[in-house]
Amino acid sequence: MTLRPHTFRHQLIIALLGFVLLAELLVTIAILHRTYEQRVNQARDTLQVADRVLDELMALRADQLLSTVSILASDYGFKSAIATQDEPTQRTVLRNFGNRAQADLAMLADPAGGLTTLVPRTQPNASALPFQDVLEGARRLGSATGLVMVDKRPYQFVIAPVNAPRLIAWIGMGFAINADIARNLASVTGVNVEFIVREGTRELYRTGPQSRDTPPDMLRSAEAFLVDEHSLFDSGATRLDVALSLTRDTVLSPYYDLASSLSLVFVITVAVSALVAMGLARRLSQPVRDLSEFAESVAAGHYHEPPSAQGIGELDVLTDALNDMQHAVRQRENRIRHQATHDALTGLLNRSAVRDVLYRRMNAGERLTLVRVAIHDFSRINGALGYRLGDEVLKTVAGRIKTICNTTHTLGRIEGNDFLALVADTDDDNASQRLIDALRSQVEQPVYLQSTSIQMRLEIGVVRVPEHAADIEAAWRRTVIARNGSRQHRCATFVYKPGMDEAHQRELAIIQGLAPGIERGELSLVYQPKMALASADIHQVEALARWVHPELGAIAPDEFIRLAERSGQIRLVTEWVVARIAEDLARWQREGMKLGVAINLSADEIAQTALDETLAPVFAAAGDGQLITLEVTESALLREPDTALQNLRALQSRGARISVDDFGTGYSSLAQLKQLAPDELKIDKSFISQLADTPADQFIVDLIIDLGHKLGLDVVAEGIETASAWRYLSNKGTDLMQGYFLARPMPAAELGAWFADHQANLGRWLDRAADRKTRA
Fold it and tell me: Is 36 helix (H, G, I), strand (E, B) or coil?
C-alpha cells in the first residue's frame, strides 16, 4: 500500500501509527535512559569498592609482612649472626625467611640506617637505604610500612628493629607491586587494575590491565569505559599511580540486552498497531471518501442524494450538513446566475447580457434596430434629490420602458441612466417608430416622489444593424454617438448617420494622443505680438499652443483644448504651456527684451484651487507680475463664478492683469463684470473681420470701446487683418491691436528678429497713424 498523506484514510493511518510510534519511542527512550544511568552509577560504585578493596589488600599484606619481619627480628640465631657480623648467615636467613613470606626483597641495616645486606642484591654498591621515609617512621613508631621505589619499581615495604636488648640492626622486607597484585584485586572486584610508574610526565612502568574474566591481551585492546585513576605514592622524582577501569561491555552488557528486547517489543507493537490502524482507517475512511465524492459532484454542479454514513454519528451530522449545503449552493447558484446577467437595481438585463444577445443575433444575420434611451440631465436630478430618490426615478423609468417593450424585444440597463432595446426588423417598418412614440408618450410622464413632481425628458438614439454597423463594437459605439446627437438636438430622436463615427474616432484619437504628444514634443508654442496703437510699441505677446499630430496633422487649438477640458487633461496642457513660457521669458530678459505674455485660461483652469501654484513658474520667471496677462472668457466665468473670482483676485494681488477675452459673445452681466474688475476688454474677432462694411459690427465695437474706457479699462482688438479695420479702430481710440495685419503668431526663436525689425521701422507705423489722423 502506498501511503499518500493527502487522503483521509492514509492520514488516519499515519496519525494512529504516529501516536503509537511516539508513545513506544518515548517509553523505550525513558527505560533505556534510566537503565543506562543505573548501569553507569553501579559501575562507578564498583570502582569505589575496588579502590577500598585495594587499600584493604595493601594493608593486609603489610600486616602479614610485618608479622614475618617481627618473627625474624626475635630469632636468637639471627641476632647472633648480626652481633658477630656473620654476613653469609645473615643473607641465608634473610633469603629463607623472605622465601617463606613470599617477599620480593629483604634487607638488613645497621642502627644508623646504613645498608649491610640486601637480598636479592640489586644495588652492589648501595650503602644507604633507598627508603628513608619508612625508616624514619619505624624510629618513631617502632615499626613502619610504606611504598618505596627500588630500581624504579614499586614495592610495599615494612621495617622492624632488631633489639638485643638494645637496637643492633634494622630488618625490612618488601612485596613488589606488580601484575600479581593487580590480578588478585581484579579477581576479587571484577575491575581492571593497572599500576603505573611515572617520572614527571614520562611513563616508566605499567602492569597492564587485569580482569577476572578477560585474558590480558584482550584487556589491553579493550576500550576503557570508566576509569578511576589516582596516585598511591609520590617520591618527588617518581610517582606510583593506580588506574581502576571497566570496559564498555562489562558496564553496558545488560543495557544492550535490554535494548535488544525492547527493540523486539517495539517492532511487534508497531506491526500490531499498523494492522489495527489500517482496519480502523478502512472502517472510517470509506464513508468520508463517499462524502468527498458527493461534495466534488456538488462542486461540479451535479446534485443528488448524499451517501449513507454507515451509522457513524459524526459522519451522519456531516452528511446532513453536506445535503443542506447542496440545497444552499443550488439556490445561490441560481441567484448568482441571475445577478450575473441582470441589473441589481431595475431587474433588467445588464450590459454584459445585452451585449451577448446582440452578439448572437448579429452573428445570426438578423436585422435589428438598436434604440438607446437615456434620461436627459439625470445628474441634475441626482444632485437635487439625492441618489436614493435618483434610484427610485431609475426604477420607475425602467418599469415604464419594460411595460412598453414586448417579449420580442431585448431590453437592458447598460450603464447609469442608459437603457438599450433591441428591436427586430419585421415587415412592419413602423414598429421601431411606434416603440419610440410609446416611450415618448408614457415614459416622459411626470414621476411623483415624496410630493415632488419630476418631469422626464428622454434622449433617444437609433442605430440600424447591419446598415449602420457590421460588428458589435461599432454598433455599440454608434449608439453612444446617436444618443449624444439626441442630446445636442434638444432630446429629439436622432438616427445615426454614416460618417459621424469618424468624427468620434477623431476625438478619441486626440484625447488619447494628447499626453503622449506632449511627452514626444509634438506640441509647440507660438507668440502673436500686441501693439499699442498710440505709440506703436510692443509691450506684450499672446502665447498660443499649436499641435501637429503625426497622423491627423495640424489640430486647431480650439478643438484640442475643448477635448482636453472634457477629458480632464487641461491641467496637463496648462503646466506644459506655463513651463515653456517661463523658459522663454527668462531668455528674453537675458537678451534685453522686456516683453509681457498673455496666457489664455479655460473654465476648468480658473476653477482650480491650485491655479496660483500652477502659474507660479511664470511669475518667478517674469519677476514683475504686471508682465503677466491672464485672458478669460465670459462663459468661463459662469462655470463656477465664486471660485473663479476668488482665484483671479488672488492673481491680481500678485500684479497680474486680467483680460476678458471674446467680449461681446458671452453671457456675463455688467454686475459680474463689475465684480471681476478686469484690466482690459478684448473685442472678439467675429466683430472685426467685416468691420469696415458692417454697420452692426461697427455699432457693437463702438459700444464696447466706449464701455471699456468709461470703466477705465484698456480695449484690445484682435483678428485685425486689413488696413481698413486698423484705421477704424485707431480712429475710435482702441488701445491695443493684434492680428495678421501686424504679425502672424511666430515661434519664440523668431520673435527677437521680428521685434528688432519692428523697432527699426517704428516710424512707419507712426506715419500711418499721423496720416490716419490727417484724413480723419
Answer: helix
Distance from the first to the final alpha carbon of the chain: 119
Report whether 329 contacts 317 (CB < 8 A): no
Q: How many CB atoms lie within 10 A of CB 317?
A: 11
Give 3-state DSSP helix, strand, coil % of the chain, rounded to 5: 55, 20, 25
- Report the alpha-carbon angle 163-169-170, nearest 5: 100
pLDDT digits (tens, 9 = 90+) for 562-584: 888 878 888 899 999 999 999 99
Reported as a single tens digit per residue, the pLDDT across 582-624 is: 999 999 988 888 899 999 988 888 888 888 888 999 999 988 8
Question: Quick check: 121 and 178 in contact, CB under 8 A?
Answer: no
Region at 102 (left for phi over 0; alpha for psi -120 to 50; beta for the rest): left
For residue 646, give the 3-state DSSP assignment: helix
Q: Is the pTM of this model over 0.70?
A: no
Q: Give the Cα separation of 491 and 304 in Å (integer).
A: 56
- For residue 129, report the phi and psi dihedrals to the nearest 5 degrees: -65, 140
- Residue 673 has phi, psi (to 5 degrees) of -65, -40
Residue type, 50: A
Asked if residue 120 has a cis previous peptide bond (ω within 30° of 0), the answer is yes
CB 212 within 8 A of CB 206: no
Taking the C-alpha atoms of residue 422 and residue 333, their distance in angstroms, rounded to an integer, is 28
> Which residues in the chain come in under a pLDDT of 50?
1-4, 122-128, 211-214, 216-222
Q: And the C-alpha cell for 22?
A: 511516539
Q: pLDDT by residue (tens digit) across 689-712?
A: 888 788 888 899 999 899 989 989
